[in-house]
Amino acid sequence: MEKTILLLKHVTGIQRRSPLWDRVGAANKRFVLRDINLQLKAGYIYGLIGENGAGKTTLMHYILKDTIPYKGHIYIEGTDIRKDHAQILNRIGYVSEDRRFFENCTAGQNAGLLGAFYENFHEEIFTDAMAAMNLSARKVYKTMSRGERLKFQLAFAIAHEPCLYLLDEVTAGMDPVFRVDFFRLLQQIIRDGRACVLMTSHITEEIETRTDYVGVMVNGSLVRFGESLDIIPDLRKGRACGEDHR
Amino acid sequence: MKIIDKKQQKLLDEFFQRERSLGLVYYGFGVAAGIVLAIAALLSVVPYQVWEGNRMMMGHVSLLEVTGMEIYMMQYRDLREDGRNRRVYEILCYLPVSYGQFVLYILRKLLRLGLCLAGISAACQVVFAWAFLDTVAAGNLLMPFLGCLVLPVALVGGTLLWSRG
What we know:
By secondary structure, chain A is an alpha/beta fold. Chain A has 9 helices and 10 strands. Chain A has a single domain, classed as Rossmann fold, CATH 3.40.50.300. Chain B has 7 helices and 2 strands; from the N terminus they run ααααββααα.
């Protein structure tokens, strides 16, 4: 039986409101998720699509940050992430353009400095992953291109052996040659059935051909979820993620 | 739930040691904090009875202590890269270390520094007041602890908690 890696049960964001906040007006209200139910199993690549501001990155932030208030429950490998959020982050590999590292340090120094926080960080796995992606560990982070930074982040994530990979818009702007290698790498990650990948993307062709399941987000809600090969053609036909699917 | 997670505190300690050994900690923060705190310490060893006619002076000493502590805290809170200040926690936020433990780590550093400064100031005030003014008051012990420890740690620690983001 496939192991459930991530389980979201009725996850709904909470607006922290005060009389003063109300005076400021609706424009300042925080964007929140609405009743998200999602189950991700090991051994699969999952995609999340939606327009800008639909809540794809926000969903990842609900999992990654302990500062966002919400109702409902998020479980990783059966453990509620509220119990010990810092400990849970050992099990998550996050790759995103927005993620920060030490700009003036090399990839190796960054890995050495920050990898120490993880329980299972393996320098040799990091070195192997960097070599597999043709990236030198001696390259200074600020001199890396966007693609190289994402490759480094992926190697960094692989090195601490997470069970859940969260990839936020990583393939946008990625060169076609590496794109093929990148998805081959993801297949290797999930092959042994111990991890799953959740990735967001705007490229529907990529989601259709490279992911097993896809979720469609609209205005903070997950309006559809199913096999990529079923959903993406529907979206193309125009039976998209509108109100009729709620 | 544990308030102080020893494992995370140890990891943070090792992280800051490594950060320092790689030269990532901006020396300017340490130098500036040292200068400001040295001036504040020099003024705070003078028995408060001397300043009693000038209450503003006691306020200035406290302000210097707060400023010195704030700059001292920036060594841990901020990172200077290519002329720009960034928050260290921006880098740590997706790692297995909580903001609470990060704040506690810095607060412990501030407390240690504040206790040290307050202890030295209080001892000096008592000795100087006894030697030069022939009188020792409870204020010679209380004022340094208030000005060097309670006020700066509360204000600087408060801003750190407030800026959680």
